[in-house]
Amino acid sequence: MAAKPRKNKTARRVLAAGAGLVTVGALVAAMPSAGAGVDTFAGHGKDWGRMVDVQLLSFNDLHGTLEPPAGSSGQVTRVKEDGTTEKVDAGGVEYLATHLRQARQGNRYSITAAAGDLIGASPLLSGLFHDEPMIGALNKLDLDVTSVGNHEFDEGAVELARMQNGGCHPTAGCYVKGKTFQGADFPYLAANVTKEKTGKPLLDPYFIWEKNGVRIGFIGVTLEGTPNVVTAEGVKGLKFGDEVETINKYTKILERKGVKSIVALVHEGGMPASSAYNYNCDGDGDGDGEGVSGAIVDIAKNVSPQVDALVTGHTHQAYVCSIPDPSGKPRLVTSASSFGKLYTDTTLTYDRRTKDIVRTAVASANHVVSRDVPKAADMTKLIGDWQTLAAPIANRPQGWIAADINGRGSTAYEKPLGDVIADAQLEGLAPADKGGAQLALMNPGGIRADLVHKASGAEGDGVVTYGESFTVQPFTNMMNVVDLSGANLIAALKQQVSGSNLNSVKILQVSKGLTYTLDMTKTGADRVVDGTIKLNGAAIDPSKTYRVAMNEFLAGGGDGFAALATGTNKLVGASDLDVFNAYLAAHSSAAAPLAVPAADRITVVQ
After folding, report:
1. Exposed/middle/buried for 578, CB within 10 Å: 0-12, 13-18, 19+?
2. What pLDDT score was predicted for residue 284?
3. How many helices (H) and strands (E) does the chain have?
4. Which of 5, 101, 300, 519 can bridge 605 by disulfide, Cβ–Cβ 3.0-4.6 Å?
5. Please, are residues 184 and 154 in contact by the beta-carbon 8 Å criterion?
6. What are the protein's UniProt keywords (predicted)?
7. pLDDT for 422-451, tens place per residue?
């Protein structure tokens, strides 16, 4: 599906570039003296003859976050000059818009790009309206191009097509009387996503941005493992190809079109050595990529040297690193955290004669989307309009909490909010006519926020509104209860730390009564200590059958839990959000708010 033409844009677009770290002075000193019109740097974004300064602004993983994210989800860590760190409040599209618009000032050539997961797993203000509000905000942000991420497939390929091309929702209809949703003004790129029946790309694979003869190509891919982190229905009929093979394929196609400056938008990422957004990822200056680990490192080391930079995402981390390309030359790889808390500002120097990026002249840094700037008025109006529509539902109280109950913001393997959610699922599915569940398992990635004690509006401190509970559980996954053998239950717990989860563990959140020991001094499946897995004090019997509650994502084997997909005698229950809200209502009141769980079901040996 081709993207609609951009509205009111002076530059024609179609793909991209950038990497390395050198001073402007070093660039000028290294430039040929014969370059026509070359004098000195006249400032960012200036056209100074042969060399053109191009600004690339980028972000990733917004997840429909329009309002400033609350709690730890709305903070970034900064390293101060004395080496200590501090937390800084950040995020919110009203502030992101202001920061981006200020950053563009004085830049004649400026591109804004993103690396996926801009929608999906969204707070209620966008999620309640199938992310139409977020697409509207992105249009106002003047986004030029983005790759898809795994969450763009949460509601399937047909809904993704609607996000691109517009039209009212097939069942919910049009939300604003007399107005039809117009879709994205920018192209979504999905070079490695093809239709199984035809082998043809689902979306445009690349995009070429052009202005005054400056041409930069962008190739967009999502992680090959998208089917492992999305419900089966969301990726039905689609095939996800290898990231490196795909990028290299379309790099050659772009080169044949005369595009030599290329940037890859990759919804896959890494883990930096520090959580601070301003951590010096290339501290030793040798550009060896040692400041970051994870899947993106292998991708970056194998993508064609013709690609000048990689804008990445998925892991919600912040980094600006150099990783050597296959020829050994340092190349820039960036990521801007999540939820609009940061944006990356990269300066690319384009050589008109070679039509390529001067790799040694690329400079980049992450910047905080601080809340000390004026709010963008158009974004405030957009948010207000949708808030008016959402208010009757969003502001409805669901329960009360005594203090912050951290989920997304917890770094522990067992998260306090994970315990609450798992207990809610067990309680909701335990009755015989609801499935007869004996235990419940919850995937950690499905906990999208914290429950924050401080009021987000006029509801009062400690009150959990529907909007806040929706933000925690935004997928509306239907609950499943299945028969699972003790052997497969044990196997599933071992899959938390082995197989596809070996290098990036995914510790399931468990309901009350299920206990075991996790020994992180060991490796692989041995980390789940044999003989310690018990239910209500009794060891799990491999030959016995247990009724296990979990959301449909886990029941389908998502997140690498193939053993959970072996369940039989399935009963489909209420949604995860419904059982969560019912639990809050049943276990809390203004006089007796829900306490923070002890989170002591998993004994961790470090």
Report:
1. middle
2. 63
3. 13, 31
4. 519
5. no
6. Hydrolase, Nucleotide-binding, Signal
7. 999 999 999 999 999 999 999 999 999 999
* DSSP H or E run through 419: helix 416-429
**Ordered DSSP codes for 23-78:** -HHHHHHHS-TT-TT--S---TT-EETTEEEEEEEEE---TT--SPPPGGGGEEEE
Tokens of 101: 């618009």
Torsion of CA 323, 326, 330, 336, to 10 degrees: -40
pTM of the model: 0.86
| Dist CA 386 CA 372 (whole Å) | 24
**Over 50: is that where the pLDDT of 341 sits?**
yes
Nearest partner of 311 among 273, 343, 341, judged by Cα: 343
* The two structure tokens encoding residue 550: 């979990």
Ramachandran angles phi, psi of 24, nearest 5°: -60, -40
Cα distances from 307 to residues 18, 358, 365, in angstroms, run: 8, 12, 19
If you search the block for the tokens 């002890």, which residue do you land on?
A: 598
Task: Report how far residue 33's alpha carbon sits from residue 39's, in angstroms, rounded to the nearest whole number.
Answer: 9
Element (H, E) at 332: strand 330-336
Residue written as tokens 């996790």?
Answer: 518
Mind giving me the DSSP string for 285-342? SS---TTEESHHHHHHHHS-TTEEEEEE-SS--EEEEEEE-TTS-EEEEEEE-STTSE
515 CB neighbour count, 10 Å cutoff: 16
Mean pLDDT of the region 239-250? 98
Amino acid, single-letter form, for residue 585: A
> Token pair 């949460």 is at which residue?
154
**Rounded Cα distance, 402 and 347, in Å:** 47
Q: What are phi and psi of 269, to 5 degrees?
A: -150, -165
Residue for token pair 């690396």: 115
Query: What residue segments make up the domains of the chain, in order of their start?
Result: 49-366, 395-602
User: Could you tell me the two tokens for 594?
Assistant: 């829900």
Whats the size of the chain, residue-wise? 606
Q: Does residue 117 come out as left (phi exceeding 0), alpha (psi in the -120 to 50 range) or beta?
A: left
3-state DSSP assignment of residue 507? coil
The CATH class given to the 395-602 domain equals alpha beta
Pair of tokens at residue 376? 């963008």
Distances (CA, A) of 291 to 26, 279, 323, 326, 503: 24, 9, 9, 18, 17
Tokens of residue 298, six digits: 């292998």
Domain spanning 49-366, CATH architecture: 4-Layer Sandwich (3.60)
CA pair distance 572, 551, nearest whole angstrom:
9
Determine the distance from the C-alpha atom of residue 530 to the mean position of all C-alpha atoms in its chain, rounded to a whole number. Answer: 35
Which residue from 147, 256, 135 is spatially nearest to 193, judged by alpha carbons? 147
pLDDT digit string (tens) for 46-90? 555 799 999 999 999 999 999 999 888 899 999 999 999 999 999
Q: Quick: pLDDT tens for 351-410.
A: 999 999 998 888 999 999 999 999 999 999 999 999 999 999 999 999 999 999 999 999
Q: What is the CA radius of gyration of the chain?
A: 24
Instruction: Say how far apart CA 38 and CA 57 lie, in whole Å.
Output: 25
